[in-house]
Design goal:
The chain has 2 helices and no strands. By secondary structure, it is mostly helical. It has one domain. GO terms for molecular function: zinc ion binding.
């Protein structure tokens, strides 16, 4: 039973660390000017509010 709990804890920690790493990278990324999904321009307010965004608010 302890092995299962240890494995689950390791998986959870790995997932958490991966999510944190991805979030940090997102803030260092320049926002796209046009949506990757529909091609429409991304509003400047969204690009400033969500740094590193790749899609418009609709998508």
């Amino acid at each position: 039973m302890a092995d299962i709990i240890d494995s689950a804890s390791e998986i959870e920690e790995l997932q958490r660390n991966t999510a944190i790493k991805m979030r940090r990278q997102n803030y260092q990324t320049v926002s796209a000017t046009h949506c990757c999904e529909c091609g429409d321009p991304i509003d400047e307010r969204r690009r400033l509010a969500v740094q590193g965004c790749r899609t418009c608010a609709s998508c």
